[in-house]
Design goal:
heterodimer, A: alpha/beta, 4-stranded antiparallel beta sheet, about 40% helix, about 25% strand, disordered C terminus, B: mainly alpha, ABC transporter involved in vitamin B12 uptake, BtuC, two-stranded antiparallel ribbon, two-stranded antiparallel sheet, 4 strands, globular
Chain lengths: ~240, ~325
């Protein structure tokens, strides 16, 4: 099976800081890949490289076999790869529905058509009753869901989720886990950055561990979680791993 | 949506009847000023209100429209209703060239760049004397009468034809805002205003859409600007390219409600009517009161009149529910 997304020794430097160093992995269609690592490991930087916000300093990124480094974020989105933001970015003065319509317009010129797509995705994440609320007034749990609905409305083949469970309570996290599994069932490929190890183990088919910008380990969830090097990286940094 | 449309059509129709009942040139003059300020506010609103790109250099497009039509009339004897379109075209071309460069800048840097561009064009108009007659400006010679086929429509000898042209211009600019807001362009511009990075990640080519907004905005501004210039009958660089022209457009929207279709109408109402009233009673001191008023509006109603009203309405609805 050919990879949907492939990274070949991707590096990103900020001056002398090596935010990412020789990151190489690939994501097969239909899987959920977990990207984990202690704070500052370079997970979000890698997302920014993949989605065109920071072009990689070295290395290549391929999406469906085509090299995409150097493309702008909107071009990457048009190709079918959409990302959410760790720090949510609602379009505050637009309603929940309008936010999602913006996503829907990625594949159509027609606003009514985009509305249909948007309503459908709002139902998927369970925000259809909040459609007319201003996005700026949503509590954090619903903001995270809105990010997801908006991204799904762009009708991507692959989504990159940057800590969609961050800051959520147990019930809300559970809803997001179900959503990720639901999206997976619909055949979408996902790369998720997450800190909650239970959620990672339940949702991911494979895990890539980053530490100080470099790949530390890669493999099946259980295997990675029990890897002593991974343990050390986490224990040395944030005082213990919840697994 | 439908109701606002009916109300707008009725309001425009009622306004169209005004010259039948009011002949006072001063009253008609106030109406014409109001239409011009509405048209200019709506023009700015497309870029500043929807896309959130706070240009304080829109006098550039205003002046290019005005100079384009004036120069063609003066030097080539081209009637204004043809010359205007040349002015509009030049404004759009220059605007897109400028936008291509300045839209790399964000926030306050874009504001500064927009001011700088208008200043450059003002200095150009001041010094390119063969074309613009420099600081002496251009006085519009007698306007040729407007004819359609063989019948004469107007000879421009009273305020009434200007009244209807102004009304038409204002309605046109409002309609453009209305159409833009409901279209893909409108959604994309508002997304850019709210969060550029989020918009970019949702597949929106930022510079392309900002330039689209700037192009439409500049075209409308040039159109309204050349009309305003012909109404006054005289242009000189400071008068059309000066920063006051730009600031008035921004203020119209800030007071009325940035990013709303009806906002500039209310903003223009406050600005025109109030300035006239104050000018009559306070003479030069009116500027002082005017300044205080703007500060008060911004403090009490940061979202403008329309934003304030709709916020109240939403709260009342929420309380009732």
């Amino acid at each position: 099976m050919t990879a949907l997304l492939e990274l070949r020794s991707v590096s990103r430097y900020f001056g002398g800081v090596k935010a990412n160093q020789d990151v190489t992995f690939s994501v097969e269609p239909g899987i959920v890949l977990g990207l984990i690592g202690p704070n500052g490991a370079g997970k979000t930087t890698l997302f920014n490289c993949i989605t065109g916000f920071y072009p990689p300093s070295k290395g290549d990124i391929f999406f469906e076999g085509a090299r995409i480094n150097g493309l702008s974020p909107d071009q990457v989105c048009k190709l079918g790869m959409a990302r959410t933001w760790q720090k949510v970015r609602p379009l505050a003065k637009l309603t929940v529905l309008e936010n999602t319509v913006v996503g829907g317009l990625c594949r159509t010129r027609s606003v009514p058509e985009a509305r249909e797509i948007a309503l459908q995705q709002l139902r998927v994440v369970g925000l259809e009753k909040r459609a007319d609320v201003l996005a700026g007034g949503l509590p954090i749990g619903e903001r995270k869901k809105l990010e997801l609905a908006r991204v799904l409305a762009t009708q991507p083949r692959m989504v990159l989720l940057d800590e969609v469970m961050g800051g959520l309570n147990a019930r809300e996290s559970e809803e997001i886990i179900q959503l990720i599994l639901d999206v997976k069932r619909r055949g979408l490929t996902q790369v998720v950055i997450e800190h909650d190890m239970k959620a990672i183990v339940r949702t991911c088919d494979r895990i890539v561990v980053l530490n100080s910008g470099e790949m530390l380990a890669e493999g099946a969830p259980q295997q990675v979680v029990n890897d002593p090097r991974v343990m050390a990286a986490y224990l040395g940094d944030s005082g213990g791993m919840k697994a | 949506m439908k109701r606002t449309f009916v109300i707008s059509v009725v309001a425009a129709a009622l306004l169209a009847l005004v010259p039948l009942f009011i002949q006072s040139p001063y009253a008609l003059h106030i109406f014409i000023l109001f239409f011009i300020v509405v048209a200019l506010g709506e023009s700015w609103n497309i870029l500043g209100g929807f896309a959130g790109q706070y240009s304080v250099g829109h006098s550039a497009w205003y002046g290019i429209g005005a100079y384009g039509a004036f120069i063609l009339l003066q030097q080539k004897n081209v009637a204004p209703w043809f010359g205007v379109w040349v002015g509009v075209a030049v404004a759009v071309i220059v605007a897109l060239a400028v936008g291509w460069i300045t839209f790399r800048l964000r926030g306050p840097y874009f504001v500064l760049a927009s001011i700088a561009v208008a200043e450059i064009i003002r200095l150009l108009a001041l010094n390119w004397k063969d074309l613009t007659n420099g600081a002496e400006g251009i006085l519009a010679s007698d306007l040729p009468p407007l004819k359609l086929g063989g019948t004469m429509i107007t000879d421009w000898n009273s305020k009434t034809p200007y009244f209807y042209m102004g009304l038409l211009m204002a309605v046109f600019c409002i309609a453009v805002n209305y159409v833009v807001k409901g279209s893909k362009l409108g959604y994309y511009l508002q997304a850019i205003r709210e969060d550029q990075d989020a918009a970019h990640s949702l597949g929106i080519p930022l510079t392309l859409y900002k330039n689209a907004a700037l192009g439409i905005s500049a075209a409308c501004t040039a159109l309204a600007g050349s009309f305003a210039a012909f109404y006054v009958g005289f242009i000189e660089p400071q008068g059309v390219f000066g920063i006051d022209v730009s600031i008035q457009m921004v203020l119209t929207c800030i007071i009325g409600g940035i990013g709303t279709v009806s906002g500039p109408i209310f903003g223009a109402l406050v600005l025109v009517v109030l300035t006239e009233m104050l000018r009559a009673s306070l003479a030069q001191a009116h500027l002082l009161v005017y300044g205080v008023l703007v500060v008060v509006v911004i403090l009490v109603m940061p979202e403008g009149i329309v934003g304030f009203a709709s916020q109240r309405l939403r709260r009342r609805k929420a309380a009732a529910a």
